[in-house]
Amino acid sequence: MREQRTETTIRSRSGKKISVTHRGGILVRTPSQSIALDPRRASKADYSFVSHAHIDHIHSPDGKSKLIASNETVTLAKARGYDLKGAVDSLAGVDLTDAGHILGSRAILVEDSVFYTGDFSTRDRGFLKGSPGTKCDTLIMETTYGHPRYVFKDTEKIVSRVNRLIADCFDRCRPVVLTGYPLGKAQLITHLFRNWEPVYLHESVHRMNEAHIDLGIEIPRHDFCGSGSKQSLLLQRRPWIMISPASSGRSQFIKSMRENYGAVVIAFTGWAVEPRYSYMMGVDYAFDLSDHCDFNELVQLAKYCDPSKIYTVHGFAAEFAEHLKFLGFDAEPLEGIEQNTLTSYA
Ligand SMILES: [Zn+2]
After folding, report:
1. Contact, 205 vs 222, CB < 8 A?
2. Ligand 1 centre from 73 Cα, in Å?
3. Could you list which residues have their CB under 5 Å from ion ligand 1?
4. Average pLDDT score over residue span 17-33
5. Kind of pairing, strands 114-116 and 199-201?
6. Would you state the torsion angle of the CA atoms of residues 207, 210, 216, 219, taken in this order, to the nearest 10 degrees?
7. Model confidence, pTM
8. What is the distance in A from the centroid of ligand 1 to the CA of 314?
């Protein structure tokens, strides 16, 4: 992967000198502190900002760099086996704002000037509220779906179409497996399809659902169902819904759901916009329910933040920066940061 180096220095609104450096990761320096933004591994900065608890954003601290993360992120990371010890959720010169991506996800505004979105959603979905963004001078924004072909359907339309599919399957006594990332998407699916029963959870989803319930999110509590004795229950109680991690239809778990119980598999991901997604992933249906902004929402976000400089990261960073330039923004991609792809699961 080509390593790009970028360094820019700006003046904050209060006249402080701030530099944004990119050498594989992103570092923001103010006169009083340095902050690494979502570093993939322990950093030498004074602080490391952990925007949310998806696996590609969390790392175990080495004690040199203090962590900045929301309390929910610390709790969810712990449930995934990561101890973000010593993390603080506030710091002088820094504002954390909701990123609307998953429970506890935050964006960071440094010295009222540099705004880093992390993974971001402007759209309300179930118990998750979208965030409009923040006015800033320099915007560092995620552009996972920064290509015009990624425009997502309304959540209500997706839910009503899937409810019809489930009803049709249940009429034929066919169980349904709903798949999504175990943290974030799976809890949203649990919430959106809460009127069906019985519902079982894959063990990894169960762990994350329980952590959400402990944090006060109102989703129904369901049993997990792995191998062994529960399997006979699945045979007796057909039809049912199983909520499972996003994985290929060729995975062992999904295969067993199909072969043993005749389950129909429905996936939820922004990548479902790709016409061949269902075929490629070996699922029966796929819907574009995403925890990221779509193309139009990214444009809205940039306009709302109204910065004088924009850096784009992840996904279609180069393409989206070109589009922003076409709209009159000074925009540039930060390439070389590891990217989400069609088959990456957080
Ligand atoms: Zn994420």
Report:
1. no
2. 11
3. 54, 119, 346
4. 91
5. unpaired
6. 110
7. 0.93
8. 11
